[in-house]
Amino acid sequence: MKQLITLDDLQDFDALIEEMVALKKQPFAHTALGRNKTLGVLFFNPSLRTRISTQKAAQNLGMHTIVMNFNNEGWALEFEDGVLMNGTTSEHIKEAAGVLSQYFDVLAVRAFASLEDKQKDRAEVVLRSFAKYASIPIINLESATAHPLQALADALTIKTFQKTARPKVVLSWAPHPKALPQAVANSFVRMMHRMDAEFVITHPEGYALDPEITKEATILYDQKQAFEGADFIYTKNWSSFEQYGQILRTDDIWKVSATKMKWTNNAYFMHCLPVRRNVVVDQDVLESPQALILEQANNRTFSAQAILKKFLDEA
Ligand code: CP
What we know:
It is a single chain. By secondary structure, the chain is an alpha/beta fold. The protein folds into two domains: 3-146 and 300-314, Rossmann fold (3-Layer(aba) Sandwich); 150-296, 3-Layer(aba) Sandwich (Rossmann fold), CATH 3.40.50. It has 13 helices and twelve strands. It has helices spanning 13-25, 49-60, 70-73, 93-103, 118-123, 125-133, 148-161, 183-194, 211-214, 223-227, 258-261, 283-286, 293-314; strands at residues 3-4, 38-43, 64-69, 77-78, 91-92, 106-110, 138-140, 168-173, 198-202, 218-220, 232-236, 268-270. The strands form three sheets. It has a five-stranded parallel sheet, with helices on both faces. The chain has a five-stranded parallel sheet with strand order 10-9-8-11-12. It has a two-stranded parallel ribbon with strand order 4-5. Helix 1 packs across helix 13, helix 2 crosses helix 13 and helix 4 (93-103) crosses helix 6. The longest helix has 22 residues, at 293-314. It is globular, with a radius of gyration of 20 Å.
């Protein structure tokens, strides 16, 4: 494996889950593996969990890390090939990725969707250009369309807390005042396709995700029907994929509340964070014993560590 762009890059999903479980039990069992190796971490967008957990994962493996906020600290990058660079961009991705490959052993990159140009976002221009021109492995720390490390952490969370062999898991759209990307939801759907579960997506009309990703999923527009019998409620906002990047509704009818959680089979509540309290979900749900949000955040270390270990093992 040379890159982790989406979960489709992973061959043996079950083995990776087992690796995460093992690393969570013994985080420092492989400190010699990353000795004298360096992880580069580039952020084009803000982060709390990804920034810290990825560095912690590397340190657990004995690696050094260097973090750069590329938008503020780097040269403006050019991604077009053959272009006359007499405008605002100062450095071509071919040189930038080549240079970073001299300094690092693995490179991790966060570059969100623009939500303006659907075709460009779907092409994952930033992340795939790094993958194309770097000579070292690339890890996606949330790109335009995918957040695989979040989905792997969520898979570990569900595996840890599931009470039946085939739990019912519901991905429920929630309101949000800002237009957010579909990346987390896309990766959660991809991950659920690989797990043994009854999986349901519920969202208002107009909020269908990319049909190429959701093609195997059950989709309900009735949130109550979706919640009935659920063992896990995973809530997330995303902007419209059809009317790309648009917010189609601003009411709070789809917000998760304690009343709605009573429709479920005493379900656990999940969210990747950050979350807007009392907009996406009521705070009493976030503070209830059923909320797994901190467990999900903790598991981010072990999803990153499992992927880094895979790259180091294969080096
Ligand atoms: N869930 C997640 O990726 O959090 P950050 O954006 O804070 O990294």
